[in-house]
Write a structure and sequence with these properties.
It is a single chain. This protein is an alpha/beta fold. The chain folds into two domains: 2-159 and 290-321, Rossmann fold, CATH 3.40.50; 162-288 and 327-375, Rossmann fold (3-Layer(aba) Sandwich). It is built from ten helices and 13 strands. The protein has helices at 2-21, 67-82, 96-108, 122-128, 161-175, 189-209, 229-240, 253-264, 290-303, 342-354; strands at residues 53-56, 86-89, 113-117, 136-140, 154-159, 179-184, 216-221, 245-249, 267-272, 282-288, 316-319, 326-327, 372-375. The strands form two sheets. A seven-stranded mixed beta sheet has the order 12-10-9-8-6-7-13, sandwiched between helices. The longest helix has 21 residues, at 189-209. It is globular and about 60 Å long.
Length: 377
Amino acid sequence: MKRLLAILLAAMFALSMVACGAPATQPAPAAPAEPGAVEPPAAQPSTDGTYEIALVTDVGNIDDKSFNQGAWEGVVAYAEANGKTYNYYRPSEDSDEARIETIRTAIDKGAKVVVCPGYLFATAIATLQGDYADVSFLGLDLGLGDIPEPTANTALITYQEEQAGYFAGYAAIKEGFTKLGFLGGMAVPAVVRFGYGFVQGANDAAKELDIVGDVSLKYWYSDSFAPTDDIKTKMSGWFTEGTEVVFACGGGIYLSAIAAAEEAGAKIIGVDRDQADDAELIITSAFKSLAPSVQMALEALYGNGGVWPAQYGGIETKLGAKEECVGLPTADTSWRLANYTVAEYQELYAKVQSGEVTVSASIDTTPIVDIAVAYQN
């Protein structure tokens, strides 16, 4: 297992280097799968070299087991079911200029729809949406705070990550863990909402069980979405100090958390998509339904003649438990909680859906809770 994790870390760094060096003027080739991983679907062959639906990746790649991959799987599922050509493109570097250039390249290659996963695309979409009125832009994790004036050809989707984080924190305490950790990537709104929801969920479960004084939570942003030795060292220190489970929230940083947890015999909670296949010690994942939400949006787009309908175009659509777009995976192979049952989780989920249980989405200040939370940034 340790050897596999070492290979995974090396693969992730290699992919990052490839992403930074790929020419922005060409569609990116499908990346090789990491050892032991399920290879994400590759780009659709095109007879004339054009691709109708394009996804432009952020600093990650389509096999990042997280945000890019989830969005890409949604593109593939819709396109293949509806006979559309599709491809993905990687910017040559992490800059607004590179993202703008890459989106222009995708459009030159025939894209009528451009899917942009992540907050990094705010400037690029705001810059290009007026230049390409006949192209439909779909921004994921982008809201009105990022693009205050989206045009009718731009649809913005955000998620109620605080609800997914809440379910994860609640489940961890109900399972019997009392020493928790939150490892965030960059402190962007989506990551912060995951983290603050996690704190709220742990607090509510501790209050229900009357163990508030026994529960503690360490909280830290690594300022990175890539695995590093520094992150692993930090997590190893937490585990040495007694942390039992860490919610790793931020792209590839979960690989560093897994490496440390495996050595310590600790547990990890995944993020964005069901990461159960990545390691046995991942007890659950706080997911948002990236692939289904992309499919849903594309169905609405094409069902309206290739333009965004009123419920998408020029506005921010926020998806959460009510739409069944955030939560914890309940498949037998993913539910690795012995004391907290699926039935109990579903009961809580229904309460969040109905509004009986509310989770604050505020990120301006840390949540007011009764458990001990040590913010380490």
